[in-house]
Amino acid sequence: MEVVLVGVELEEAGRTSESIRSSVFPKKALHRLDLSVLDGANEMDRIQQLLQLYKDDKSDPFTLFALGFEYHKQGRLEDALKWYKSILAAAPGYTGVYYHLGKLYLELGNRDDAVRTYQEGIQVCNDLHEVKDRSELQQALMEVDDD
Questions:
Q1: Which H/E stretch holds residue 24?
Q2: Do 57 and 32 form a contact (C-beta atoms < 8 A)?
């Protein structure tokens, strides 16, 4: 199985692709998703384009992530939750989702699920030797514990 590291230019509160991506998955999952095509699109057009990509390949974890991320950016938290959780079911090794799902749980007022998500993500990162993502998740967990 050929694997690659994925990077995309998404920005969110100063976090760039380097802290969002970082998941290893089969190269075939990368073939279509070029978010630069979405740059000029309004929010609903981006979601419609991503939904079309999803219809074409329901197993691509990056498409699932991009949908969750777009819904999250729009404040559609329940929709974002659905897509983020679908990644955990389809590709639990997609480490970038744990940070965002934990953050979303905090926004929804669910501290316990946020802590559990960060802890699960840290374990997955340990298993996959994903040092950078593990570090970010540990920092997020410490911030929750400080509150």
A1: strand 24-26
A2: yes
In three-state secondary structure terms, 129 is: coil
* Per-residue model confidence as pLDDT tens digits over 32-72: 344 544 555 676 788 999 999 999 998 899 999 999 999 99
Interhelix angle 77-90/96-107, rounded to 10 degrees, is 150
- What's the burial of 122, exposed, middle or buried (CB within 10 Å: 0-12/13-18/19+)? buried
**Could you state, in order of their start, the residue ranges of all structural domains in the chain?**
3-146
Residues 6+ away with beta carbon under 8 Å from 45: 38
- Tokens 């998740």 locate to 137
Residue 33 is encoded by which pair of tokens? 């998703």
Interatomic CA distance for residues 110 and 106, integer angstroms: 5
Euclidean distance between CA atoms 127 and 134, whole angstroms = 10
| Predicted confidence (pLDDT) per residue in 109-147, tens digit | 999 999 999 999 999 999 999 999 999 999 999 999 887
Report the alpha-carbon distance of residue 125 to residue 23 in Å, rounded: 10
CATH architecture of 3-146: Alpha Horseshoe (1.25)
Calpha distance 22→5 (Å, rounded): 6
Q: What does pTM read for this prediction?
A: 0.72
